[in-house]
Amino acid sequence: MANPVDGPLVLAVPSKGRLQENAAAFFGRAGLTLAQTSGARDYRGRLKGVDGVEVRFLSASEIAGQLASGAAHLGITGEDLIRETLPDAAGQVELLTPLGFGQATVVVAVPQAWIDVRSMSDLDEVASDMRVRHGKRLRIATKYVNLTRRFFAEHGVADYRIVESLGATEGAPASGSAEIIVDITTTGATLAANALKILDDGVILRSEANLVASLAASWSETPRRAVQAVLGRISAEERARTTREVRAGMPASGEIDLAGLAALHEAELPYGAPEGRGEIMLRCPSDAVFGLAEALVQAGAQAVSVRRIDYAFAAENPLVERLLGRLT
Ligand SMILES: Nc1ncnc2c1ncn2[C@@H]1O[C@H](COP(=O)(O)OP(=O)(O)OP(=O)(O)O)[C@@H](O)[C@H]1O
Ligand SMILES: O=P(O)(O)OC[C@H]1O[C@H](OP(=O)(O)OP(=O)(O)O)[C@H](O)[C@@H]1O
Ligand SMILES: [Mg+2]
User: Which residue in 154, 192, 278, 282 has its CB near the most CB atoms, within 10 A?
Assistant: First the structure.
């Protein structure tokens, strides 16, 4: 294949709404400062300190589309929008890592007044009944057309039709434009306010914002180099946030199986495994700190100190390896 024309890594970032602030903060923590290149309406930018990156500020739903088409290499958007927009998400993108924000659950919700309808099979009976008795199909208001079709097919419910709804979906049953809905919920407040309830087996997807890479994009030399810098900083921040460094002064004499002790406490020896005498440095998950410190004292440590770190860079980067592995 002819050598693809090289160009920048295109990074798509939410331009507005609830994901925008969290996404900017996420990159900021990783030392990746988003800078808009010109007027606020320009919706383009760059990453300070990382060459070869073009930032595009888009809506969360447009980001899913650009990752599917390959117009963007990397992006942040909700898993709900990825799975709704991409018929074969697994073959079109790599969900690199969930980001801990933008949580929302895609659910099937019916009127609370439907007291006997608690499950998808109950709903199937209502749907069949409506068709047989009234010659009408159950109407579902939703913006998640594909997610709805897949979920209802999995549950063998066919007697329905979809009424596309791009906002205020929860109001559809009360306004008579649909009987039930499929929509996202976070606190449940909007469902309750509209006298709707979630079916017991009506959770379609528990979604949160994800860092997503496109498999359809042209991963030529510059994007490959830039993505390693970007993912390197993201991993360094994540590793530092979730671990603590443990320093211990071991006695000059005595034998200690440091590697064995580290393994027992999910710890690693990032700066090498000295023979176990004098100062040693381990890194462990933040919730393993006390067990490790007590084990080191048991093994003869005179003093043990624990500290947080800002960034923990490493030669290997599982995110990069996973992505590059998908691209070959
Ligand atoms: N309570 C919520 N309501 C809506 N979106 C939520 C909620 N909680 C988290 N999200 C996430 O945010 C995404 C939508 O965010 P937002 O509405 O800011 O984007 P958007 O640009 O408006 O996208 P769209 O135009 O499709 O609504 C959702 O798809 C979901 O991933
Ligand atoms: O479970 P809750 O906490 O009540 O949140 C869920 C509601 O919030 C969102 O609406 P929003 O007002 O954000 O409009 P949008 O659909 O355009 O995002 C979403 O579409 C739901 O209607
Ligand atoms: Mg929205």
Answer: 282
C-beta 104 within 6 A of ligand 1: yes
ipTM above 0.90, yes or no: yes
Q: Give the domain ranges of the chain.
A: 9-102+208-239, 104-206, 243-308
Q: Do 9-102+208-239 and 243-308 agree at the fold level? A: no
Fold of 9-102+208-239: D-Maltodextrin-Binding Protein; domain 2 (3.40.190)
Of 2, 27, 1, 29, which Cα lies nearest the Cα of 14? 27
* Ligand 1 mean position, distance from CA 127 (Å): 29
Using CA atoms, how far apart are residues 237 and 101, in angstroms rounded to an integer? 16
Q: End-to-end alpha-carbon separation of the chain, Å?
A: 13
Q: Is 82 left (phi over 0), alpha (psi -120 to 50) or beta?
A: alpha
Whether ligand 1 lies within 6 angstroms of the CB of 159 is answered as no
**CA geometry: angle at 206 spanning 201 and 208, to 5°?**
170
Q: How far is the CA of 88 from the centre of ligand 2 (A)?
A: 26
**CATH number for the domain running over 243-308:** 3.30.70
Check whether domain 104-206 has CATH 3.40.190.10, yes or no: yes
Distances (CA, A) of 322 to 48, 209, 241, 290, 328: 25, 19, 21, 32, 11
Hey, whose CA ends up nearest to atom 30 of ligand 1? Answer: 78
Instruction: Name the strands in the sheet holding 138-142, side by side, starting at the edge strand that comes first in the sequence.
Output: 160-164, 138-142, 180-185, 104-111, 196-207
Rounded average pLDDT per 10-residue block, the chain, 328 residues: 77 92 94 80 84 95 96 98 94 96 98 98 97 96 98 97 95 97 98 98 98 97 96 96 95 82 93 78 96 95 96 93 92
